[in-house]
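Re: Re: ligand-bound prediction request (bumping)

Still looking for help on this. To restate: I need the protein modeled with S-adenosylmethionine bound, output as structure tokens. Inputs repeated here so nobody has to scroll up.
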Amino acid sequence: MTPAARISAAVEVLADIDARRRPATDALKDWGLSHRFAGSKDRAAIASLVYDALRRKASAAWIMGETTPRAVVLGMLKLQRGLDLDAIAALCSGERFAPEPLTAGERARLKGGDLSDAPTHVAGDFPDWIEPSLGRLFGDDLVPEMQALTTRAPLDLRVNTLKVSSREEAHDALPHLNAVETPLSPLGLRIAPGEDGRGPAVQSEPEFLKGWIEIQDEGSQLVALLSGVRPGEQVVDLCAGGGGKTLALAAQMENHGQIYATDNDARRLAPIHDRLARAGVRNVQVRTPRAKADAVTDLDGKIDCVLVDAPCTGIGTWRRNPDAKWRLRPGSLEVRRNEQAAVLDRAARLVKPDGRIVYITCSILPEENDDALAAFMENHAGFKPVPLDRALEETQLGHLKNIVRPTAHGLQLTPHKTGTDGFYVAILVRNP
Ligand SMILES: C[S@@+](CC[C@H](N)C(=O)[O-])C[C@H]1O[C@@H](n2cnc3c(N)ncnc32)[C@H](O)[C@@H]1O
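Reply:
Sorry for the wait, this slipped through. Here it is.
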């Protein structure tokens, strides 16, 4: 397919997403099935155009003065891909499979359109109803913070110290990936996104299959390190899901002590078994829930650290899931808030005196972060947040002190500040 034909295809896919209100992955898959002549490179390039258009949906429509899929793609080519008017006009030749030639109005918009008068939610490409909440966190930094969430994320790897002695060893074994060390996590390697937005097929590398490396955003690595889990502790990973954090905790504990990994959704937990085996983890007991039964009741009051990697809106991962932002609704935030209250309540019963809850989300909404903890502490007087500086020093992460955004009870990582996904973490200690 020509580059122009790929643009026509992206416009078609965006129209399908709009018309049928469906996730981008489904629309892209259907397009691929009904256009079997398109090769994998074409499909990747079209997906990349669609995701870039979703990243800049509001701002691209603003500079073009209309919200059609064609306008959004044209505006994105200017804003996200940095193409000038001539380059965009050359793609829109009207020839077979290429988009129709630019109209005079489109030319004028592509030449002169900018975001100087755009409302904040347009300049930052997010739904307007979350502006008051985001404003509470970011203040004057709101637009740059949200613009950083419209960029493409790199592919980060965590080096598994249960299998490899150092980050350098893993790095040197994978020279063809052109990875660099992550600046903040001592365990991370970073691969820049390719031109089509795709990273290399890391999962088929022999080193991945041997468990030397895991795919994990640097932010996720940092919040796991901040939990401060130590060899010998008793730990519950209450929302373990596929086990991303569990694996990181096991490596920090050097396979000593015990982690109980559970989740209320047995299907989400299922992949953890293979991942634990591959990573050489020996100190994790997976507690799969049976029917609705609580799988960790026997541990109440006995646990040093309960990790609550809470269900959340996932706003902090919008770099990776840009279509999620346009599907977010107040109702879904409310559902997540109720779930967060429920998991925190459950965590409280597990913690022993002087033990701690480490609360994590991949969200930047205060409602899911500080507010959730404030509500929790109102009902659980025995829990207090650990001061940020102390938590960072104790986990050898003092270098983050002037980079992260402190909040009332924890800290916020963001693409703008830390170059990571938007993770929030807070540590609450139970009275002795
Ligand atoms: C952010 S995901 C966890 C990701 C995982 N920790 C990782 O690092 O890959 C949140 C998880 O919380 C689980 N969850 C939601 N409500 C829960 C509850 N009441 N008890 C336990 N797990 C719950 C969801 O099934 C989901 O797997």
